[in-house]
Amino acid sequence: MASGNEGIQQLLTAEAEATAIVEEARAYRKKKLKSAEQGAQSEIAAFRAQAQAKFEQETSFDIGSIKSYQNDLESETKAALETMTAAYQKNCSKIVDLLVHHVTTVKMDVPDNLAQCIKATMPIDAGQ
């Protein structure tokens, strides 16, 4: 039986060694995962900082160009309003006179196409 106990003892020792190896592998894997996670976090932070810097640079450029566009638009609008005001001042009395003339002048003749329609619808007896 001594050899049986010895065999069991060897199996227990081998099992303990296997358990230790598995635990060591798990610890190594956890260490590698933690290291990879930290590396990924640092890469993410670097990328985020780079993207933020690029965004701020583009935004500041856009804000400056928006101001210049706004100033240009205001000056163009002011010039257009001045042109329209001058045209109004110049042509105001002419337009009023033209409107008054067309409202107060009445033509008393019947257009040819309307006269033909009226003649076509009238009975022949009534025209004589």
UniProtKB/TrEMBL annotation:
The keyword Cytoplasm does not apply. Keywords: Hydrogen ion transport, Ion transport, Transport. The lineage of its organism: Eukaryota, Sar, Rhizaria, Endomyxa, Phytomyxea. V-ATPase is a heteromultimeric enzyme made up of two complexes: the ATP-hydrolytic V1 complex and the proton translocation V0 complex. This is V-type proton ATPase subunit G. It comes from Spongospora subterranea. GO terms for cellular component: vacuolar proton-transporting V-type ATPase, V1 domain. InterPro entries: ATP_synth_B-like_membr_sf, V-ATPase_G. Belongs to the V-ATPase G subunit family. One of its GO terms (molecular function) is proton-transporting ATPase activity, rotational mechanism. It holds the Pfam family V-ATPase_G. Subunit of the V1 complex of vacuolar(H+)-ATPase (V-ATPase), a multisubunit enzyme composed of a peripheral complex (V1) that hydrolyzes ATP and a membrane integral complex (V0) that translocates protons. V-ATPase is responsible for acidifying and maintaining the pH of intracellular compartments and in some cell types, is targeted to the plasma membrane, where it is responsible for acidifying the extracellular environment.
